[in-house]
Amino acid sequence: MITRPQTKFRNLNLTLPVTIFTILLCLFSYTASAVEFIQLEREFSGKGSTEGAFSKNIHLAFKTNIYVSDTENRLIQKLSPSGTFLLQIPTNPESPDNILRKPGHLTVDDLGNIYVADVTAHHMAETSDPRIYVFAPCVHKLSPTGELLHTYFVDPVDERPGVVLPAQLIIDKNGKTAFAIQPTGHDRALRVAVNAENHLYVLDAKRGRIHKFDTDGKKTLTFGRYGAGDGEFDKDASDIAIDARGNVFVADTGNHRIVKFSGDGKFVLSFGKRGRNKSEFVKPMSLVTLPTGEILVKDASRFRRKIGGLPEVIALSPTLTQLTESSPTQANLADTITNATRPQYGPFAQNPLEAADTVSLNRRLRLLEEAEYRRYYDYDEKTEEDEELAEELKRADIRLTLFHNIISRVQKFDNNGNYVDRIIYETDQLSEEKHDLTFLDFDSSGFLYLRDTSDFTIAQYSITGFTIKPSHMNGFYSARVANFSNDYLEDYEDIDFSTDVQDELNQLELKNLVGWTYSLTERWHFTFLDELTYSEQDERYVTPPKLEDSFNFDTQALENAFVANLKFITDPNPYRYKEFNISIGRIDGTSDLTQDALFPEQNKQRRVDTGDADATVFEINWDLWARTNFWFRYADLNPAETSRNYVRRFYDVSGDLYEVFGSRNQARQFLSELTIKF
Predict the structure, then answer these.
(1) How many CB atoms sit inside 10 A of residue 242's CB?
(2) Distance (Å, rounded) from C-alpha 402 to C-alpha 513?
(3) DSSP code of residue 652
(4) CB neighbours (10 Å) of residue 454?
(5) What DSSP string describes 41-90?
(6) Cβ–Cβ under 8 Å, residues 145 and 114
């Protein structure tokens, strides 16, 4: 920090901030015992169409190696566990023989066979001259080297329609005229999984069904239905997984839960509900079963950490008056000390009423940030004008934001749906390279895969357990230097123009501001701010007509202000938002002012002022319920009514001490407020 050492300053008490930090860090460690973080292992892939590069829409599967289906490039690639290209199916995606049309979700069995969801045109049996084709969702079974072994259909594709259907005239692969029927939902997405016996399960969420096929391609079982009851799931169910015992788990996205079936289709249980607490989901989107029998679930919940300026935590020293009695030559001095030691902005506002009003006004606006963010970025249909506006808002957001992180989570459950722990990771929204990292998938070993939606690289992360990591911390440092020099020449009421008063004034202010924030979990957030300010003023006040009245003023002020805030979001739902805050603030300051006669041979009169201040504030801000807030503050203010407690010593024209004047004032405040909204 920038400082100008002054031997006359008394030592500031800085032990309290360190003690507070230590206590809060221990509290953080205690509350985070069930949280794990991730660590980057490697990056691979990129934008392209062959040999380890992919288009935008891809799906992953894992069986020792990594398998990737690429919808736009109509291919499947096999990569090593480290992401090295091994194999591509088919070798030439542009070939007319490529059966892949829109390859989607895929899985791999123990023999290395690949099952990929797709859409195909099936020749309806016993139709010729012309042939009739029906488009339908399907699952292709491919050998480890890419040969087609079988195609599974979840819809009846060989039954003649019982009603007249519209059809399109086409030319088939033999060059003959044919008709094609495209039923509603013919291109709907399917999800696939295989059990230990290599039986295929196909999740057809749009139809509310799960189909089971044996190794010969015969459909042996259909179960599930649309709804929100036992054994039911919504039409946007997004994933399916099978554990080592053959149990089937479905990510019931629309109902915000996980549904468990036995291998023969019987409903076992469901767990989860809408919310962001433990065992709650906001649209579960992906799941995987681990060899231990545990289940990882990724939902769409995103916890945002945004600080657009200094944390508005507390206001110290309710009132501030001048250090010295106001006089024509000292008015600016008082303003200088005021501005240096009690800024008009940030957490240490001079007027506590204004600060309290600001906090009250901004509190709910800050809490509803998530809804605001969705309004900017998360709507579905965007026009070109909307996207341009969103980019403009984003630019303004980045410009004014010190740090803006988004925390995502993966929850872990045992086989019966009991919560075990969770994994969290952050994306820095101010990072040009990393701001658009999105979740892609996870494998049965627990590795997480994130993808950069700009350059399409894939990043593999391992789970590292709880630890304090610099990558989870954000901070800022600001240094300010201000220097002002003013010269005044004054001629009073007489008939000539001559100098009656010459006033030379120089003011210097050095300010250091450091802030630090740590998002330990989605809901625990720690922030501290420390501001060190040094200010001085030198003034030479000369009256040539009467030199014995000339004086030199020298003033120094040093102050350290510290704030620590621990926040716990008790309910992150923006419409039921509740949080709990504990804030501790501390100010220590010292000031020295001397007034000396410029010409001691004529006048040894002088004055010496020494002042000090130390204040502590403890504050609790607690949303008891979504519409009920309790606020409590204890303040030990020393001084309470001035900027400093001071001692003033006066010396006469002979240089002898003739008067000592002291002012000490202190106050303790207990304030509380209960607010209920109807």
Answers:
(1) 19
(2) 13
(3) -
(4) 13
(5) EEEE--BSSSTT-B-S-EEEEEESEEEEEETTTTEEEEE-TTS-EEEEES
(6) no
- Residue 570: per-residue pLDDT: 86
pLDDT at 463: 86
Buried b (16+ CB within 10 A) or exposed e, 34-73: ebbbbeeeeebbeeeeeebbbeeebbbbbbebbbbbbbeb
pLDDT score for 397: 59
C-alpha span between 83 and 105 (Å, rounded): 19
Residue 676 burial (C-beta neighbours within 10 Å; 0-12, 13-18, 19+): exposed
pTM for the predicted model, two decimal places: 0.73
Cα 526 versus chain centre, distance: 13
14: exposed, middle or buried (Cβ count in 10 Å: 0-12, 13-18, 19+)? middle
* Interior/surface letters 422-448, b for 16+ CB within 10 angstroms, e for the rest: bbbbbbbbeeeeebebebbbbbbebbb
pLDDT at 563: 86
Q: Give every CB contact of residue 84 below 8 A, 6+ residues apart in sequence.
A: 44, 52
Intervals of the chain under pLDDT 50: 1-8, 14-18, 20-21, 23-24, 27-33, 308-379
Residues 647/661, Cβ–Cβ less than 8 Å: yes
DSSP-assigned beta bridge partners for residue 442: 448
Kindly provide the residue ranges of all beta strands, DSSP E only, lying in 379-500, ordered along the sequence. Answer: 403-413, 419-428, 437-442, 448-452, 458-465, 473-490
- 201-231 pLDDT tens trace: 999 999 999 999 999 999 999 999 999 999 9
Indicate the helix (H) or strand (E) that contains 259.
strand 257-261
Return the pLDDT at 600: 81
- Tokens at 197, concatenated: 């016996």
pLDDT of 373: 45
Cα–Cα distance measured from residue 259 to residue 230, given in angstroms and rounded to the nearest whole number:
8
Would you state the structure tokens that stand for residue 641, as one six-digit string? Answer: 């009514």
Q: Are strands 524-542 and 551-571 parallel, antiparallel or unpaired?
A: antiparallel
Tens of pLDDT along 519-557? 777 888 888 888 888 999 888 888 887 888 888 888 899
**Distance between CA atoms of 357 and 361, rounded to whole angstroms?**
6
Rounded to 5 degrees, φ, ψ at 541 are -110, 110
What is the C-alpha separation between 522 and 282, in angstroms, rounded?
14
Half-sphere CA count of 243, side-chain side, radius 13 A: 22
Cα separation values, 269 from 417, 421, 474, 496, Å? 8, 20, 42, 102
Strand (E) or helix (H) holding 100:
none
